[in-house]
Amino acid sequence: MSRNFNEWLSTFEDSIASWRYYTDFDKVYSNVNKIKNELNLLNGLIGSKDIEADFKALIKEYPNVLKVIPILIAKRENIIIIKDAIQDYYYNFKEKNYSLDDYTMFMRKTGIFDLLKNHLISSVFDYVTGVEVGLDSHGRKGRTGDAMEDLVESYLLKAGLVKDYNYFKEYTKTDIKKKWGIDLSHIEQKLKGDNENKNAEKRFDFVVKTDKKLYVIETNFYSTQGSKLNETARSYKMIDSEIKNMYDVVFVWITDGKGWNSARHNLEETFNQMNNIYNIADMKNGIMEEIFNKQENVLMVAEDKEEYKY
């Protein structure tokens, strides 16, 4: 039965955020606790009357304090580059490569001394906890992908076909060739897309093997617009064209998110071509069962075993 693209698109979700999506506080606490001793030593500089002298004395006695300075300006890197009219500085905060006077200048010119001596904060530990919360927001993009994979996985399990985790996650073309002798190397570059590392081997989100077919499943969720959506739609359209020529392989794409409204034209072209493009609403309506449960004598391969299971 043919589907209407506009009706399908109208069922897209605006978010799949869970309670832990916005901030991974466990990660925040872990990061801060690793350097809590050094951060607490910096508390001695808060409200200092002679902060430059006190800073030098602190670093001389506790040189490890230097390594936590970058996080005070919301940087995780050990090397901080400063472009100055006089010279370029490449500060190493792991292995001291400048004089203590130069590091003192760094603290002064970046504004860290002002933050401390003017008592704008009462605890360096609490301040860095806040910095870590802010930095963790950059991880939301990755958590969106993880959340979508977890959701798809839950529907794979619900389908009954993959109980006891009898499927593969993040399986490469090399893994597939070794396990079943199916060669997907000719489509790997298309699966990677233009924006990914061409030297890294593509990992498929899920692989399900039945007695008749190998199902290669890709998943993603886009809550916001961006140029990558158009490229994703075009790439998956090309991938589907290639795989349709392979009798024993089926390409399944499960995507969702209101971000697709900005790239609906390319998505519609892919939708009109692909037999197996679905969204969250489709999964809620039992598409996993429809895809797989029509197979007879289902053959699955356990992720941690080598033997076949009938």
Description:
The protein is α/β, with parallel strands linked by helices and 310 residues long. Helices cover 44% and strands 14% of the residues. The strands form three sheets. Strands 3-4-5-6-7 form a five-stranded mixed sheet. A hairpin with a 6-residue loop joins strand 8 (300-301) and strand 9 (308-309). Helix 10 runs antiparallel to helix 11 (227-243). It starts with a helix and ends with a strand.
Structural descriptors:
310 residues, alpha/beta, two-stranded antiparallel sheet, 14 helices, 9 strands, elongated
What's the arrangement of secondary structure elements?
Layout: H1 5-10, H2 25-33, H3 36-42, H4 51-61, E1 79-83, E2 88-92, H5 100-109, H6 112-117, H7 124-136, H8 140-158, E3 168-172, H9 173-180, H10 185-192, E4 203-209, E5 214-221, H11 227-243, E6 249-256, H12 264-273, E7 277-278, H13 280-284, H14 287-292, E8 300-301, E9 308-309
Parallel strand pairs: 5-6, 6-7
Antiparallel strand pairs: 1-2, 3-4, 4-5, 8-9
